[in-house]
Amino acid sequence: MSFDHRRATTRLTVLDVDGSPLSDTDVALEQRSHQFAFGNIGFDFIPLANGENETPSRRDGFASESTEGLAGLADLWLDVFNTATLPFYWRIFEPVEGAPDTKRLRAAAAWFAERGVTVKGHPLTWHTLAPEWLGDKAEDEIEALQRGRIRRDVADFAGLIDTWDAINEVVIMPEFTAEQNGISRLAKKIGRVPIVRLAFEEARQTNPSATLILNDFDLSPAYERLIEDVLDAGIRVDAIGLQTHMHQGYWGEETMLRMVDRFARFGLPLHLTETTLVSGHTMPPEIVDLNDYQIPSWPSTPEGEARQADEIERHYRSLVGHPAVQAITYWGITDDGAWLGAPAGLVRSDGTPKPSYDALKSLIKGEWWLPRTEVRTDSDGTVPLSGFFGEYTVQAKGKTATVSLASGVDEAVVRLA
């Protein structure tokens, strides 16, 4: 499998502080970030970012029951991932109308940003976890409230969060019957494409530079038809979101890449927005709605952990090897508080990394990473720099410069400072 579409080789000219070529000099090159978005959810660290680490809290829906060990868990998270998804489930974010949890989520977004992590919000519009206070409001009022919610939150977080799942799971939205909610009623009244337009246009007008994603778990032809209708309607979509919760077992490279190819035909970047692989027994195949599988205990096992590690490596290799894929977000760093109680985390509940964590780290910060490397410039002050697209540091004589490797950049010049 080739990763050449993710790599570049640049003839790098290093200038001294006075602007002259730094000839015949030892310099150190080192990667500092990936351009590719290697993501995970950041829900667990909202209490830590807000100084709540002495008080257990499940206020954020999927946060763990205990906040002990969050600092160590954060170190493991930050050592691998560069993109964090934060929860904006409307029912949880604004349980009382007019009282959103903006301060806490801004603190969490800032905590990640200060550590060089790109932050994404999930989601702006979704029928599940719609506020109960929407209740029996008329659809026109629900629409006005939804529009206002989008404008408020996109504006409040601009600069900290500039990537959003603008709308989530539209394919099922008008037909969702598991619980009564105002958003499904609105979608049924106005239709799928109009509610997509609502979400994207309100967010776009509020933050024109935002990256807005259409996200769904239904990867059937129905989602393809929706995308076609949305694009035909002139709605600008920045990326297509594809959920791949594999609680029933790894799909395998062939199936996964066939699916990716179907959505790559739209010519838009693909974000694998929600990925899971379990390290215990797999969910029975006859389960249609994953939420229906509720069991008292779902333990991680040594055999399952070995399988998960192998599948994680295969999964990431195949997707990073596909040129249309721009981002992969794994859905959970730890088993503690994981969705459906599944052992889908990369870290056990006791805080120890599973083999899957080590396997993924060995790719992102190993095989696909340039460690500190000593080289010597030639008489013109140049050195070759090869690696995955991303940011690199150049150090010499106690000074530092930064350079980006990107597609089509064959030459670059940096000046030490």
Offer a concise description of the structure.
With 417 residues, this protein is of the alpha/beta class. The chain has helices at 46-49, 70-78, 90-93, 102-114, 139-157, 182-190, 192-206, 221-232, 253-264, 302-320, 355-367, and strands at 7-15, 26-34, 37-41, 83-87, 118-122, 161-168, 211-216, 239-246, 270-277, 325-330, 373-376, 382-388, 390-396, 399-405, 411-415. It contains 11 helices and 15 strands.
Question: What does it look like?
Answer:
This protein is of the alpha/beta class and 417 residues long. It has two domains: 4-25 and 377-415, no CATH class; 37-367, Glycosidases (TIM Barrel), CATH 3.20.20. 31% of the residues lie in helices and 24% in strands. An eight-stranded parallel barrel has the order 3-4-5-6-7-8-9-10, surrounded by four helices. The chain has a four-stranded antiparallel sheet with strand order 11-2-13-14, with no helix packed on it. The longest helix is centred in the middle third of the chain and has 19 residues, at 139-157. It is globular and about 75 Å long. Residues 55-61 have low confidence and may be disordered.
